[in-house]
Fold each of these.
Amino acid sequence: MTEATNRLADDAPADPAAMLGLLTEQQRSVDRALLAPVPWLYFIWGVSWLVGYFLLLVVSSLAPFAGQPTNILVMSLVGGTVLVAGAASSAIELARPARD
């Protein structure tokens, strides 16, 4: 008999104000979880661009002292390293809310 009573109690209509409050709270929770990594992503890629262009400037200023193929190789390695570091940091930051 208790099982039938519980089923009837669960089927009863809920208070609309309480349901609206629950819906609003869940929406806020989802918004916080999805928007939390956005500032960090801007920061990560901003630093990556700044470091990449700074190192590009340093390497290109050394052009008179080194041969052209050396500069292209160094710039490619630096650019690739910065891109890989930015991508790895972004992946870690985006995976963090999925673990929580």
Amino acid sequence: MGLVLGILAFCCQTYSSILFLRFLVEMILGLRGSARLPRLAAALAEILFAITDPAIRLARRVLPPVRVGAVSLDFGIFLSIFVFSTLGVVLNGLRSI
């Protein structure tokens, strides 16, 4: 049972790292403006977005973007990172019991 919990904890922590990488990519794309990405970077970003979209869409249903004037603040990615990081820590703690 400890091995299964360890593997699940590793998967959750890895996924939270991938979600954080998506956050960084979104920030870079936002700062980049309308300039296009090189082909390889665009392909990697597309894969990254495809992997992380299900969790972020679910988090956006739970915590929809907040409108502040003309800006919309999206906390879905932070909620996803928090949930998967916490789940990884809890599973890792249960493994050692």
